[in-house]
Amino acid sequence: METLEKIRKTYSDYVLEHGRQPPSVYQFAKKLKIPEVEFYNYYASFDAIEADIWLAFFQEARQTVEADTVYQTYSVREKLLAFYYTWVEVLKSQRSFVTYSYNRLREESGTARADMNPVLRARRGTVSRSRTLDPFKDAFFDFARDLLAEGRESREVEPRPFVTDRYSDGLWVQTLYILDFWIRDVSKNFEKTDTAIEKAVNTAFDLIGRSPLDSLFDLAKFIYQNR
């Protein structure tokens, strides 16, 4: 664990000081004062280090909220809000690295149009195409599926044919939107990001929760079955 942390810390320091990844694993291992072959015992590439760091951000935020006894009493909507607020706080502690990595992934994936809607920008442009975020994405999907299953039990989430299985995808797009918004946020203490989180989550649950249309569908179904 000490070597893993040393590799991540040294890598983070290097990219922030130089604005790019190290030129080679050989030179990076030399900086760490370990044989190059030992580096590969932990990571296959520099992108793998970044992937691990992004995953660690998510895991820290999830573990923090789930360790709070009050969190267990929250509604599913409140749990997702708590996670996002905590996740942003975790990211804030390493904002320089997050900004560097996010922009690097965007550049590698192709720059989105400057006038693109922020939701579409988060979805199409860019980091969503990067495999560096795959471990984070997989872990988030597990988290989202757990929340959605709990939401179906509490009736906060309405199951709908052909759509229910896509709810997790929608929450992932929402996560990228929040990340993109926070990266660009210049408000004091990122106050606008807090507002964006609240509005995004409330809108999401308004969409996946029960609506008057669901009641109308149930009535139509009942009439059809009992005609």
Automatic annotation (TrEMBL):
Gene3D superfamilies (UniProt xref): Tetracycline Repressor, domain 2
InterPro entries linked: Tet_transcr_reg_TetR-rel_C_sf, TetR_C_23
Under Pfam families, the record lists: TetR_C_23
* Tetracyclin repressor-like C-terminal domain mapped to chain residues: 127-223
Q: What is this protein called?
A: Tetracyclin repressor-like C-terminal domain-containing protein
